Amino acid sequence: MTQKQIDVDKIDLLNLQSLADVNPIFYVADYQRGYRWDYKQVNQLMNDIHQNPKGKTYCLQPIMLTKRDHSDHLLEVIDGQQRLTTLYILLKVLNNRLKSFAIPFSIEYATRLTCIDFLKNINRHSFVNVVDQIEESWTAIDKAEQNVDNYHIFSAFQIINLWLETKKIDENVFLEKVLQDIKLIWYPVVTTENMNAKKMFRNINSGKIRLTSSDLIKALFVLKYQGLQLPLSQRNQLKQEFSNQWNEIEKQLNEDNFWFFITNQNQVNYSTRIGLLFDLVTHSTKNSDSYSAYTKYAEGTVPLEWMKIVDVFRKIHEWSTDEKYYHRIGFLVNSDRMSFADIIEMYEKYRKESKSRFYRALEDEIKTFREFFVLENINYNSHRELCKHVLLLYNILIFEKDFPAQKFPFDKYVNEEWSLEHIHPQNPQDFSHIEDVKFWLIDTKKILDQKHNNLGEKLPVMDKIESFLEQITKENCSYNKELRENIREIKDLLEVEVATHKINNLALLDKATNSKLGNGLFKNKREIILKIEGANQENYVPYATVNCFVKKYTEKDSLQNEFWSEADATYYYQSIKEIIYGKQ
């Protein structure tokens, strides 16, 4: 099979056989750590190659390298020497077993000179029959060669052979997969006095350099423009226009209020956010390989068309400027009802119809969500995530109703980690002071008094509450174990009478504010929330939550600010129902 000519100066996706055209010597400098892959890592690579269908690319992460002494053959490895060394050992094992091919590259070390000879002549060692014999066989090796790097090389050599012995596969077919289907992301770099190979290596290992699929794709576009048969000035102009558009798109995507209406914290975390657009265009969003989009572009299975990326971005930007689309897409994505790839697929399905058809499809998805549950039946204990998503939708829609043309802050929802807060406290046994218990019981008794008046009968738990209040009023007692058990018993009885975990006692709140509130009394929570809201602090209290604590939904004749009453809960529930389902 004819291999393509490779240029070691260009980013490319290369199989191992193609390296034979250059026959490179990979040079491992002294700043690199020694070879350290263990049994688990070596076996994982072998299993991945074996399970990868023949003829399908198995893409390894980038091999970053630079030329030494202006030679096409001697290439200093900055990142990837562990993978290269393992592949070299694998080829050595197959060469030992098949004796039918030449290995298309070699490896040298700046230090550990014994490693060069040991690796080059690894086939002189006999194979073991079981894993337990590796240590015994190692001790028989010449003492001059016994160092930690050679030990790991020797172990990988034996592990690979044992894997092949166990699998009983067609090794000629396996060799063809290794040489043809394994692809290296070849990433050459030019070093300078200020940024030499050693400094690059340190930056990579400290996390300062993260070579992403997007970085590689960007380089492919630059190479494409450089290769056009046009005058230099035109090529430079195209590259500049491309660079300007790339930067503008990246700038917009890096704004959290834009980004978090198309993704959420449960979805893929893109270190370079433009990577989402490449994944969308190449249909790679569900691929676990983070370099999938790059691989498809590099192999030509997806055309390298920049305007497709621009078109997708323009459509997203259009949706972001229309609060109706923005809110519905943002809800579906942030409630995990749909991924943004699903949204794009839905849009493509209806794009040839009227614009309103896609909008109706979004509304239909939200309608399906509303029909998925019965509002009065969902609760904190059994449907926690569902309650959170119901209140998210409620917050979005009531925000849209009261502040038309403004956009709900999905970035706050994600970054501040909004969660459910009980308006009336749920765990009185966790109170630290007896006075807090007393006030909680007084608040609860008021709620029950309302219910008692409505029902025309005295509830059984009232006697226990009154008895407990009488006891702690007479005695100057601490909140001891016995009293905690009594409160636990009262709380259990109250579960039937007071809907502590129902949606009408739940509100969304950011993590920081939630911590400040703790398990406090309603009046204390109210005071803290109003201070935060009034001070315009960094953390954002959701609009509907503020409304709860200022009792915006409660009718005036039922209004009081000391506790969360049955009437408050009822009016709040009615508001949720009306906003989510519309007036019945």
In short:
It contains 25 helices and eight strands. It has 584 residues and is an alpha/beta fold.
Describe, in plain words, how this protein is organized in 3D.
With 584 residues, the chain is an alpha/beta fold. Helix content is 54%, strand content 7%. The protein has helices at residues 39-51, 81-98, 113-120, 133-139, 148-167, 171-181, 197-205, 213-226, 232-253, 256-259, 275-281, 292-299, 306-320, 323-334, 340-350, 355-370, 384-402, 410-415, 434-455, 461-474, 481-497, 511-517, 522-535, 543-549, 566-581; strands at 12-15, 25-28, 58-67, 74-79, 106-109, 182-188, 419-422, 506-509.
Number of strands: 8
Can you list the strand order of the major beta sheet?
1-6-3-4-2-5
Discrete helix count: 25
What is the average of the pLDDT values?
A: 87
Structural class: alpha/beta
Which terms would index this structure?
54% helix, 584 residues, alpha/beta
Helix-strand blueprint:
Blueprint: E1 12-15, E2 25-28, H1 39-51, E3 58-67, E4 74-79, H2 81-98, E5 106-109, H3 113-120, H4 133-139, H5 148-167, H6 171-181, E6 182-188, H7 197-205, H8 213-226, H9 232-253, H10 256-259, H11 275-281, H12 292-299, H13 306-320, H14 323-334, H15 340-350, H16 355-370, H17 384-402, H18 410-415, E7 419-422, H19 434-455, H20 461-474, H21 481-497, E8 506-509, H22 511-517, H23 522-535, H24 543-549, H25 566-581
Parallel strand pairs: 2-4, 2-5, 3-6
Antiparallel strand pairs: 1-6, 3-4, 7-8
Helix pairs in contact: 1-5, 2-5, 2-6, 3-5, 8-9, 8-12, 14-16, 14-17, 15-16, 19-20, 20-21
